[in-house]
Design a protein that fits this description.
By secondary structure, the protein is an alpha+beta fold. The chain has helices spanning 71-75, 88-108, 110-120, 135-152, 156-181, 190-220, 227-235, 262-290, 317-346, 348-351, 359-370, 379-403, and strands at 2-6, 11-16, 26-33, 38-45, 55-57, 62-64. It folds into two domains: 2-75; 88-403, Mitochondrial carrier fold. 54% of the residues lie in helices and 8% in strands. The strands form two sheets. A four-stranded antiparallel β-sheet has the order 1-2-3-4, with no helix packed on it. Strands 5-6 form a two-stranded antiparallel sheet. Residues 1-60 are annotated as: Disordered.
Amino acid sequence: MATLSSAGSGSTLSILQPNNNPSSVQQNTTVSSNSGGSDKTVGFAESNESNPKAAWSKESGRVATTAAESANDASHHKMAVVRDTKSLDYIARTMIAGGVAGITAKTAVAPLDRVKILFQASNPQFEKYAGTWTGVFKAGRDIHKTGGVRGLFQGNSATVLRIFPYAAIKFMAYEQYRHLLMPTRRDVTPGKKFVAGSLAGVTSVFFTYPLDLIRVRLAYDTKVTPYISLVRKIYNEPAGLNRPPHMSWLPALKISNFYRGFMCSVVGMIPYAGASFFTHDVMQEFCRENLPWTLKPNQHRGLPDKNGDYSRPELRTVAELACGGIAGAVSQTVSYPLEVVRRKMQVAGALDPKVFVGMWETAKRLYIAKGVRGFFVGLTIGYLKVTPLVAISFTVYERMKTALDIN
């Protein structure tokens, strides 16, 4: 018997291990509360989860396996750490996991990111390559010729500075919104998943948008520009003080130069983040319920949490990457037109520092100049970049959650 005691809450948790009968698969959990003066016993089937035919039940949060389990396998039972999702410890761990996932993914696709920004913003030197399947490789070749490997990663330092807080806040916020809207797995619905993802995306954008704008400007400029010099330049652009009539309700502040395209970004983030988290979660559940061979072997659920939900079985790395890749492709498709408009607004300061152009005006000019096709310039690169980006991001995040004991 293993016993956990908590002096603060006055509760004791005891685990009764299976007997020596090899066919025994039953394990009982007894929870005693000194304050309540009553005992509660919960019985559940414990499996070694090494059976590749194990099936994940979404509603009960259990893994059902055959009854042939030995006492030796049960002796390897690992107790899960149940953490308070509202505690600072849980929030800090999810932020670290999200930040590491974001940096890893963004650095891996940085060259594609820079080429995509050059195409979206219609940079004169690279616009000739846009719209062709080989354009991304030709643009990359030209960048490498003039700036070497460093040129391919120009702006990535700003990306790293931005992506850590961005990804940390996004994943942390998603976990918080998810637990708020769906406290148990029985409360999970597709709509709530989409809402939780959208709110997480908007929250992260609000806090990190200026860093995103600086990154885009660094990637857009074909000349190497010192980071501090560019920040000073953006801050001093006249547009922040010269507001058009329809934006007169906003305060005329120089800091607003760092928020060009912010509303467009928020509007675009709702379908992007919502579709991303929603699709990823749906694909994960699909794998657990219908593709048992995608589950990692030799997993141990430990104890159920206060809602009776067990920890979810982990997917194999290939399956996790596939779920993330599909999520990235779907989210990129539904949000890409708004992303193009946002990029146009972000680089507007480099083209005309005196004028503030709104989202609808930017979209109108783009449509007049290039038609509907103009809203999808660089989408091929978007797929090449976002699919591995989201795949790596979600996979690293899931592995970090396991490493930090928050899975």
